[in-house]
Write a structure and sequence with these properties.
Oligomer: single chain
Distance between the termini: 28 Å
Helix content: 25-40%
Structural class: alpha+beta
Shape: globular
Number of domains: 1
Low-confidence stretches: none
Number of helices: 3
Strand content: 15-25%
Largest sheet: 4 strands, mixed
């Protein structure tokens, strides 16, 4: 999958690091960078597509094999991307 944008510096919160296997984080990050936003609603999907063209924040939602939901957020300036649990937002 070809990346549609730069993810910048990567960060992961302690909770996500503890609960989400790194291989699953890697797969999700590649999906995120290629524009596969995961389990976002239709409105958030449309917002992400708009954000690609307008330098706004991007957010994806994924679920680990164990059923743990996690988010990936790339800042508007594409300087950084964070992997986190919803409870850590």
């Amino acid at each position: 999958m070809a990346a549609k944008f730069e993810v910048g510096q990567l960060g992961i919160t302690p909770g996500a690091q503890e609960l989400i296997p790194m291989k699953e984080v890697e797969v999700a990050l590649n999906r995120h960078a290629s524009g596969d936003w995961g389990k976002v609603c239709d409105d958030d999907n449309a917002q992400n597509e708009w954000a690609l063209e307008n330098d706004a924040r991007l957010m994806s939602v994924y679920e680990s094999a164990s059923g743990e939901s996690f988010w990936i957020i790339t800042e508007a300036d594409r300087s950084s991307t964070t992997i986190l649990l919803p409870s850590e937002y």
